[in-house]
Amino acid sequence: MHRPSIAVVGRPNVGKSTLFNRIIGERKAIVEDTPGVTRDRLYGSGEWLNYEFNVIDTGGIEIEDAPFQVQIKMQAEIAILESDVILMICNGREGVTDDDRFVARLLQKSGKPVILVVNKIDNFEMRNDIYDFYELGLGDPYPVSGSHGLGLGDVLDVAIDHVKMLDLGEAVDDSVKVSLIGRPNVGKSSLINAILGEERVIVSDIEGTTRDAIDTKYTVDGEEYTLIDTAGMRKRGKIYEATEKYSILRARRAIERSDVVLVILDGERGIIEQDKRVAGLAHEEGRAIVIVVNKWDAVEKDDKTMKKFEDEIRNAFQFLDYAPITFVSAKTKSRLNTVFPLIRQVDESHKKRIPSSTLNEVIVDSVSMNPTPTDKGRRLNIFYGTQVSVAPPTFVLFVNDTELLHFSYKRYIENQFRRAFDFTGTPIHIMGRKRN
Ligand code: GDP
Ligand code: GDP
After folding, report:
1. Domain that holds residue 144
2. Where in the numbering of this chain does the EngA-type G domain appear (predicted)?
3. From the alpha carbon of 238, which atom of ligand 2 is closest?
4. Which of 350, 376, 411 is the last residue of a domain?
5. In this structure, are 197 and 339 located in the same domain?
6. Looking at this predicted complex, what is its ipTM?
7. 230 labelled ligand-binding
8. What's the pLDDT tens digit per position in 256-276?
9. Is 122 annotated as contributing to ligand binding?
C-alpha cells in the first residue's frame, strides 16, 4: 500500500493554508544534506490514528496572471488527479458563494471522496451557520476552526475511513513499480510509449481497476512491472506540468510509490537546476535509481561525447554516484534495450540482504585496513553490524559512542560495502547505535 494523499481545495482566503499547517502539525521536514532539495510549503505529511498520509495544499499551485476560474479549476483537477481524499474548504462566515458552487460541481463529477469542511467556525454558537452548506450536494458539512484547531479530528476520522475502504479494494501487488521523472519536455511520454512498444514488453492492463487507474502493468522476460502514472502524464499532466510546483509535486508522488526511479535527462539541452531537484527527491526517498539520458540521437557525437556527458552528470549529481547511466533515444529507439536490464539490476540491489556473518567479515577487514578514528583520546569501536532493512538497504553499526562515528568514516564503510557487494543503483543507509 502506498501512503494516501489528502488534498485541500477551496477558493482563496477560506483558510486552506491554516488547515494544512494544522494537519501536518509541527512535524519538521526531514533535513537532508542533499543539495538543491528544499521542501515545498504545499506538500507535507501528517498522521492520524496511526495512519500516515500526505497533505497537498493545492492553493499553493498557481498559474501566473490566470483568471480565478482557471486557477481554481486547475487546483481542483490537480486534487482529483493526485489525491485519494479531497477536503473542500469553505468559509462559514461568508456562507455559500458562487465560487464554492463552481468548485463543488467539479469535485462532484470526479467520483473521488470529498469531505466538506466549513472553516472559521470558531465557537459553538456559530455551528448553526453550517446548514446552508448542504446545498453544495457534498454531504454533511463538518465545522472546524483552523485558527483554534477545533473539529479537525472528526474530519480526519472520516478521511481515514475513506482511505481504509480504498485499501480493501486494493489487491496485493508484487510487481516492480517504476516511474520516469524529469522536467517537462525531456521525453518522458515518448520514452514510455517507446518502452511499451518494445517487442518483448507485454502490456497486460492499460487502465487498471484499482485506485491507481492510471498505472500500466506489463511483463518483460517474465518479470512483472507497473509503470506509474503514465496515462496521467499523457493526458492531464501536460496541461499543468508547465507550473514547476506541480511538476515537482507529481514527481514526488510518483517517486513515493516507486521501487525504481528513472531520472530522465535531456541529452540535447544538458543538465539544469530543476533536474537536480527532482533527482534529489528520488535520492532522499531512498529509491533505486537509473539515470537515463534521452535524445541521444540529436547530439553531435564523437568517441568522447558520452564520457564527457557522463562526467558532467557525475559532477552535477554527486549524491547519485551509485546510479548507473544509460544513453538512449526514444525517437530512434536506439539503446532502449539497455533500460530493462538496468531496472532489474538496481531493483535487486535495492532489495538485497547481506547475511550478518558476511557483513561482519567486511567490517573487520575494513577496520584493519583503515583504523577507526579517535577523538579527544577516545577511539571509535565498532562491535558489529547488521542489516536492519531493505529498500534501501539499511545497516546499523553497534559502536561504543555514536559521536565518534563521523561522516567520513561512515562514508568509508559505505564504500567498502559497495566494493564487497553489488549495490549498483541503490542508496544505502548506515546508522550508528550505542552498545555498552
Ligand atoms: P487560504 O488562502 O485558503 O490558504 O487561507 P489562509 O489559511 O491563508 O487564511 C486566510 C485568512 O483566514 C487568514 O487571515 C487566517 O488567519 C484566517 N483564518 C484561517 N482559519 C481561520 C479560522 O478558523 N477562524 C478565523 N476566524 N480565521 C481564520
Ligand atoms: P515529456 O514532457 O518529458 O513527456 O516529453 P515528451 O515525450 O512530450 O517529448 C518532448 C519533445 O521531445 C517532443 O517534441 C518529442 O518529440 C521530443 N523527443 C522525445 N524523445 C526524443 C528523442 O529521443 N530524440 C529527439 N530528437 N527528440 C525527442
Report:
1. 5-164
2. 4-167, 176-351
3. 2
4. 350
5. yes
6. 0.77
7. yes
8. 889 999 999 999 999 988 889
9. yes
